[in-house]
Amino acid sequence: MTHVVLVALTDEGQGVTERLDALCREHLQRIDGVESVRSGTSISTEGLEADFGWMLTVRFRDADALAAYLPHPEHRPVADAIGAAAGRVVVFDVAD
């Protein structure tokens, strides 16, 4: 399972993306069933990101691990920081 989060930031200054990246590294790998975490800004040369300035992908062992991730206490600081920084969030989950 892969969990994709696209974030349109209200303010991209003052180290916002670096703070989000650091929170993801600090918290999300502690959750059982998380296999990998990637986050950052786009390096695409296509320019098709629209207003999405930051993204997060989390790969999970299985659907049960994804279900356990959402209410997990280590997810909360990341979700709260994204919510505070975001004007818009899109979440997309896919089965691998």
Automatic annotation (TrEMBL):
Name of protein: Dabb family protein
Residue ranges of domain Stress-response A/B barrel in the record: 1-94
Species, as recorded: Curtobacterium citri
Leader sequence residues: none
